[in-house]
Amino acid sequence: MNLPRPDQREKKASIAVKPERMRQRSPLYAALARNLIDSITSGQYPVGSLLPTEMELSKRYGLSRQTVRQALGQMADLGFVVRQPGVGTRVLRMDSPVRYTHSIESFSDLEHYAKELRLVIQHMEEVEVSGELAQFVGCRESSRWLYVRGIRCLVGSDEPVAFSETYLKEGFPDIKEHLANLQGSAVHLLLERQYGEVIEEIRQQVSAMALDEKIAAALGVPAGSPGLEIRRRFYGSGGRLILSGHVVHVGNQFNYASRFIREKC
Predict the structure, then answer these.
(1) Is residue 252 predicted with pLDDT exceeding 70?
(2) What is the pTM of this model?
């Protein structure tokens, strides 16, 4: 049985959900999640608005707060809402989000990532890196780098999947023109192909974060939404740092997979 829509309950207060019949088809929380998602996709709850509180939904549908909490958790996992302590449950989007699973085991996997998620460059400029930014990049104070900002989208789509910021060491002639024509290749492969700069080591760090206003706006979600940040530093011969930066995905739209194989003695 489908749950009555909120507007139906307001008009007919006597309508009640019958849990024993609901269990025959699907869990109560799943049915409630589907009902609320339908309300979102129909425009009843616009993007950026708050859903009713757990207590309000509990009273409206005649369900326990635990069931309501499970339903909202499932909706958050699906990328429709974000739960913000002290604020409420905010609508992120009206359609099912694009999800991306990234599996990395070798250098070639990074090339595959770049081919699947094309880089759309939005801004480039030469900058002097100092202070906290120098710590982020991992370089010496007051060194010169090319700053490249953009988004990554699945091939054939303009919907942003990730936010990207990259710092490229100076000294590569006409690099801006080459980057503008990157088209599905990785930046470190461009350096190898055009300049003979072979990357010998990549160091990577993955961490959770709350999206700031700049990144959230680029990805089309509210500031404070959960995100997953992947920082990478690329080193050439002699341990020289060549390339540094990060990509940031919306937390509930990205899966990161690794495989570990035991070494034979």
Answers:
(1) no
(2) 0.60
